[in-house]
Design goal:
alpha+beta; 3 helices; 7 strands
Length: about 170
């Protein structure tokens, strides 16, 4: 089993962070375009324990991979956990933690995962999966910095109801 951990400071209040990051509708905004992340199930305004989300990703050679996740645990404005039910990993457990700190929120992503196929899976992990996951989560840190921590002004968002325009408008005032 492997682990990936990323921690980031966000200049926003806990409620805003929670509302943004707990919405599956915003996930594609903080995912690199080359992954071609697409949600195929209807997504409610608020997630709930047991929520099943169907989506596809195309991380390698544009080959579509189906992924089904379940929201397993939610502790409002503290953390939530999603787990892969079907997809490219043998096991995927992703914890999203939020902690109010001076001046903002500390957000931590903690992912435990393993690949199928034994030795072949270990080789594929060494060859590119580890690097690709690190790249995806490093992109996420840069994008979140751009969305929440950039003091230069407005940030466009493809989501009409996204919190990003609200945050940017408040920043400009």
């Amino acid at each position: 089993m492997y682990q990936l951990k990323r921690t980031q400071f966000i200049k926003a209040d806990l409620e805003t962070c929670w509302e943004y990051f707990s919405s599956p509708a915003n996930l594609h905004v903080i995912t690199p375009d080359y992954v071609d992340f697409r949600v195929h199930s209807s997504v409610p305004d608020q997630m709930y324990e047991g929520l099943i989300i169907h989506y596809t990703i195309r991380p390698i050679f544009r080959i579509p991979l189906k992924w089904i996740s379940e929201i397993r645990t939610i502790r409002d404005q503290d953390y939530f956990v999603d787990e892969q039910r079907k997809g490219p990993y043998k096991m995927w457990h992703h914890e999203h933690h939020f902690k109010e700190v001076e001046g903002g929120v500390e957000m931590t992503d903690l992912i435990h995962y393993s690949l199928p196929l034994g030795f072949i899976g270990k080789f594929v992990h060494w060859l590119f999966v580890r690097k690709q996951l690190e790249s995806i989560f490093d992109y996420r840190i840069r994008k979140v910095d751009e969305l929440f921590n950039d003091t230069s002004g407005y940030v466009e968002s493809p989501l009409q109801d996204s919190l990003v325009p609200k945050i940017a408008r408040a920043r400009k005032q």
